[in-house]
Amino acid sequence: MDNSDAPSDLAAVGKHFLIGLQKSIILTDHDKRLLTALQPAGIILFKNNFKHGVPYEDWLASLRELIESCRACLDRDSLLISIDHEGGAVFRPPPPITNFGPAAKWGQRSGEVGAAMGVELRSLGINLNYAPVVDIHTNPANPVIGTRAFGTTPEIVIESARNFLLAQELEGVIGCPKHFPGHGDTSVDSHYGLPVVHRGLDELRQRELLPFAAMIQAGAKIVMSAHILYPAIDPLLPATLSKPWLDGVLRDELGFEGVITTDDVGMGAVSALFDRPGAAVGALEAGCDLIMISAHWTETNRVLGFAQDLLASLRNGKLSPEVFEASQNRIDRLLESARVHPVEALPESVFAAHRSLCAAD
């Protein structure tokens, strides 16, 4: 890899990345270098970034130091502190943070759960959560969605997800509906392989796309793309890299003006595609704004190659300046809306109330 680009050069394109930290409760030298060189839009916290098996106050202090170390690497105040926090199996922090179980079990309580999650995530310094899941659980053989979805019909998903999204955001945590254009009808887990769904666009408009349209109408600021191939719409590329899907359907047809982030590009469905020269540029040209890459799935030094590719393509004109500027503006608006939350302990009474909510019928 050519390392001739100075950190300040890479920082010109670094805002287009979300970086999942290495498996450490302290900021490693590896991550310090990446954050300093790239100045990314945000970081992603995973289970191993929390100190488990110690008292609440102890792991909270450790988390506070980790986030402060991340902020110290930046030349700006705004940073997306993000997490994949759905409840059920998708859950990272130690006790006493509440696991409300999977979304399918919340029923009419999705708004209350969204508010409670927002309160707890805000106390951890987090301002972006990759939830709600707005996939519709239509395939019983689906190995990855299941009870992560609110239900089996668009109507159930729309009502529950909207209530969750709005309530969570009222507590200062941005929600990210996922996985566009829908992961509920797949039989392959995109963490490990590329799902292929043989549905036409007209059929998808009647089902999978309805919750995304509703989330856009509700004011969603960011949407996550799925690593899924729909041959009837784009026979060559999964939605993450597909201009017909992202620019064509999500932006032009559904009217989404916010930020589009990829799902993690280290996942098995697309990891090899992102080894190809020009993949990062292709993602932006397709309509993505943020490229997510985390140490949980891959070697995050790959992001330096992505950044160099973007920078070179911007300089030589392969990446449209208009596309790049519009994307930068969307990211800037998202960063401006992301609140800075102190990491602070919540009283036991809050957790008791949330446990009571969790136990409700």
* Name of the level-1 CATH class: Alpha Beta
The CATH superfamily label reads: Glycoside hydrolase, family 3, N-terminal domain
Helix content: 25-40%
Give the overall silhouette: globular
Radius of gyration: 19 Å
Count the E strands. Answer: 8
Order of SSEs? HEHEHEHEHEHHEHEHEHHH
Percent in strands = 5-15%
- The overall average pLDDT, rounded, is 93
Overall domain count:
1
Named at the architecture level, the CATH assignment is Alpha-Beta Barrel
Query: What is the name of the CATH topology?
Result: TIM Barrel
Structure class: alpha/beta
Molecular structure report:
By secondary structure, the chain is of the alpha/beta class. The protein has helices at 7-14, 29-38, 56-72, 110-123, 154-170, 201-205, 209-217, 243-253, 279-286, 302-316, 321-337, 348-359, and strands at residues 17-20, 42-45, 80-83, 128-129, 174-175, 222-224, 259-261, 291-294. The protein is built from 12 helices and 8 strands. The strands form 2 sheets. The chain has a 6-stranded parallel beta sheet with strand order 5-4-3-2-1-8. Helix 4 (110-123) links the parallel strand 3 (80-83) and strand 4 (128-129). Helix 1 packs across helix 10 (302-316), helix 4 runs parallel beside helix 5 (154-170) and helix 5 (154-170) packs parallel to helix 7.
